[in-house]
Amino acid sequence: MKSMMQKAQELAQQGYPVFPVGNHKRPLISGGFKAASDDPDVIKSMWKTRVSANIGIPTGEVSGLVVVDVDVKNGHSGFESLGVLERDYGPFDTRKVTTPSGGQHLIFCTDQAVKTKSGILDGIDIRGDGGYMLAQGSNIDGVLYEVANDVEPQEMPASLIDFINGVSASTALYVTPKQGTRNDHVFRLASSRLGLGDSYEQALSACRSAGLNCKPPLGEIEILKIVDGVYGRYMPNIEKVTKESVQAQRNRWQREIRIEWAKCDMDMRFALVNSMPPNAYVAHEKISLALWYRGRLSKADFDFTAGLTGVELESLKQHFDHSGDWYESVNVNDMYEDSYSRILIKRANGSKGGRPKVNNL
């Protein structure tokens, strides 16, 4: 009979990094799954003093494996939920391993990012990035993880990956709802199905299953009313919302904001050109540029930059709504904290004024 170390090395030869796991399903080495290795010498040292340790394999990008974990413990109906997944995204003719509790691991391969999530459906957990699984040959209290379908892991369907990554914990599809929360539970499920682009019939079937899992079960008439309401009132998502699409929308909004500010600025400049003498307008622009660049001006700097005296200088100060002494006070900083200059300049440069950040030479 092969030792656990030999089994671990065989898996490593197939390209899967491994690490020792205890009977309680917890890693036995510092670093856990992050310390997994496919180096024969490292594996030998890992199992040298842990000869009976189980074999853990990291899931996700590290190994290229993702596991659909079907659970039947504590009243979970994992195989019923698996039937829903296979109906929508299957069938799954992939590698399957029976777990000691009577559940099953469906092992897929993929080069895409898949999140680790608990309870995406009742009794269904996903082991992806940041997770791990126990390999065949491992055991819990003497009961083995045994291969039930001895084939190579098949490619996880892209639609299933989208579903897994898109499921929100707030949807709580895996919870068995009780009286008082049943309608909300079915409503959320119907809404998520609509968002995924499912047909009315598909959503109704899923909601019927969810309604039967409620305690007490939700009646057929109430389920029909909920699904009819969702599909009659709301529109499905036309396109999938992605990080890139959100960023593109944000960029559009920022461009629109800048355009509106520019329009206001041009209107103000046009009014100034027509209402101020040329020398006063030039002084106004010089002061604006200096304040934009430096964030604040002392009275002396203001007067020097303006290049005006007497009534013309006082009139210019009135355009900035403050007296000359004001430019020496800390209140200038407060003004620039909430000003248009802060919105555009501080956001870009992270400083009070408009000076760009530079590295010390």
CATH class of the largest domain: Alpha Beta
- Mean pLDDT value: 77
Termini gap? 67 Å
CATH architecture of the largest domain: 2-Layer Sandwich
CATH topology title of the largest domain = Prim-pol fold
Tell me the β content. Answer: 5-15%
Question: What would you note in describing this structure?
Answer:
A hairpin with a 2-residue loop joins strand 9 and strand 10. The chain has five domains: 58 residues; 109 residues, Bifunctional DNA primase/polymerase domain (Prim-pol fold, 2-Layer Sandwich), CATH 3.30.2250; 59 residues, no CATH class; 34 residues; 86 residues, no CATH class. With 361 residues, the protein is an alpha+beta fold. Helix 1 runs antiparallel to helix 2, helix 5 crosses helix 7 and helix 6 packs antiparallel against helix 7. It is elongated and about 100 Å long. It starts with a helix and ends in a 12-residue tail after the last helix. The C terminus is likely disordered. The strands form three sheets. Strands 3, 4, 5, 6, 7, 11 and 12 form a seven-stranded mixed beta sheet that branches. It has a three-stranded antiparallel beta sheet with strand order 1-2-8.
